[in-house]
Specification:
This protein has about 375 residues and is α+β, with helices and mostly antiparallel strands. Among the domains are: about 100 residues, Arc Repressor Mutant, subunit A (Orthogonal Bundle); about 70 residues, no CATH class; about 100 residues, OB fold (Dihydrolipoamide Acetyltransferase, E2P) (Beta Barrel). Helix content is about 30%, strand content about 15%. The protein starts with 10 loop residues before the first helix and ends with a helix.
Length: about 375
Amino acid sequence: MSRAVDKSDGLLAKYLLLTAIIGTDWATRLDHKVATIIVERYRSDHGNARASNSYLACLTRADIKNVRISVGRLVEHGAFFIHREGKGTRPTEYVPNFSFAASGGAHAPATSGDADTPTCGGADAPTNGRSGDAETPQSRLPVPLTISGYGEEATKEPAAATPPPAPRPDRAGGSVPAGDFEVLWRAYGFKRGKAEARAAFDALSPSDERAAAMIEAARDWCAAWAEGGDAKTGRRTLASWLQREDFDCEPPRRYEKPTRQKRPTDDEERPQAPTTGTAGPPQAPKRHRVTITDAATHQAGADIVLAIVMSAEDGTHFRAEHKVQARSASEQEDGQRALARLCMAANLGAVEDAAELCGREIEIMAGPTGPIHYVPHLDCGLVA
């Protein structure tokens, strides 16, 4: 009897890889989430899965440092291979090791010398006498394997492979399938006009990362409406929300009716206006030569912020923050423009790591208040 052969990287192979990772004693819950997202993004026509660390941190709701540790642990134990490291806006390319379960990587080998303890790679080895059935193979799979030439299972038709159940999206955490309209529909929480909303979503045809950001924005808007935001005009349908591209805007704030101040009557004493001296002219920004003492990036919600600390020769300290990656396109454009001016002032063509800025001498224009302006390197006369 001819049997259909499963693809080496099909749904069954993905399922076996995930169950093998979950069955290990070294993988954490974050490792399970990261592995699920990477396997979900695997494309057999390309032979790899592309996902950046910031994208994994956004879907798992974990700190990006913990995500890097989790990825390193999965690669170290052989569950995945890194085909190409991510750099700049290019995500990292992963190659799943679909032979991880068969290689015995799901469990560490026994050290007690007990020959009755099977490994994950020995799914077709017979069990010991305690099971009561010498012909039933011991396996951690929910269904027995159907291998050609193995007992009575060789004459049965193979059961259809069932993919692992997708985790339910909720605000408590967990990965969500990016680009899924149903996830966005449930996250928005206002179930009216589903057909129009689906048409508006298909018209945008967002990428996976764009869809994940839209889902996060929909949850924020839903929470803001639950707290009474935009109560004066009421909630809008998801179709209108998508057409207006409100997912790139801040969620509404709680509407508060303005209160009028009571005017004092003739019998009441009117408050006297405070007397102040003559205000002097505003102080113009001055030029300072500073040294960058600290430069680092940190996560602020869905945004990545570059924080710069500078010290002048007279002991004055200056601090500046720029959003190099933001949900709002205008904020990200302003942050990238400020970063380019900072690189010009530090005589750097491009910055791969924020630590490259530490120790650089630059000149800035700054006053007691207001923004900080970086003086380009050719104008300030610094020597590289």
